[in-house]
Amino acid sequence: MANRTAGPEIERLIKLLAKLPGLGPRSARKAALMLIKRRADLLEPLAEALAEAKDKITICPECGNVDTLSPCGICQHPNRDGSMIVVVEEVGDLWALERAGVVKGRYHVLGGHLSPLDGIGPEDLSIGKLVQRAQAEEVSEVLLALNATVEGQSTMHYVRDLLADCGVAVSEIQKGVPMGGELDYLDEGTLAAAINARRRI
User: How many CB atoms within 10 Å of residue 30?
Assistant: First the structure.
């Protein structure tokens, strides 16, 4: 019989924590021990927040953002500029741009990037919906704010070609985003510079 250092419930907690980005088995054990040690002020509120999130959080049918509203608060906001759609790979990128406070338009979350090696093709992303949205009469510009990775740039070129016949200006974020950089890890000033220095493609 194998040695076991903790009960099955604790082992399950550690295994689930280890699936989170940035947490390996050792970090997951540390996090689990901290949660157990601070059960009243950390573990119990976290369990309640997770249960509430599971019940209330939804994916916006318009842009792909996550929110407790449907459509999300950004899509419903009356002061958003409906003439611009800012395209991002993931919700974390949307949040990063919102923190920078430089986007006045609406968003579109692709849900990832093209990656043939991983079996991710156009049908796995929200590209068709983007083309539909770009054809709306009020839309005049689509800003591609995709990550400066090889996959992000390949996705950008693919989307740009699809938008060529939609009658909208297509631009990309430019200065300030390094090759290989991901938007969610950039500071607000860098993101602001990238948005303000966008160029047509």
Answer: 13
pLDDT tens-digit series, residues 111-149? 999 999 899 999 999 999 999 999 999 999 999 999 888
Q: Report the C-alpha gap between 130 and 106 in whole angstroms.
A: 12
Query: Residue 194 is encoded by which pair of tokens?
Result: 């990238």
Average pLDDT, whole number, for the chain? 90
User: Which residues 6+ apart lie within 8 Å of 94 measured at CB?
Assistant: 63, 65, 88, 107, 109
Give Cα separations from 11 to 33, 40, 66 (angstroms): 11, 20, 30
Residue 107, Cβ density class (10 Å: 0-12 exposed, 13-18 middle, ≥19 buried): buried
Query: What are the Cα distances from residue 176, in Å, to 22, 104, 118, 172, 181?
Result: 25, 19, 29, 12, 10
Q: Which CATH architecture has domain 66-200?
A: 3-Layer(aba) Sandwich (3.40)
76 Cβ partners below 8 Å, 6+ apart?
69
Domain boundaries, the chain: 8-56, 66-200
In terms of CATH architecture, what is 8-56?
Orthogonal Bundle (1.10)
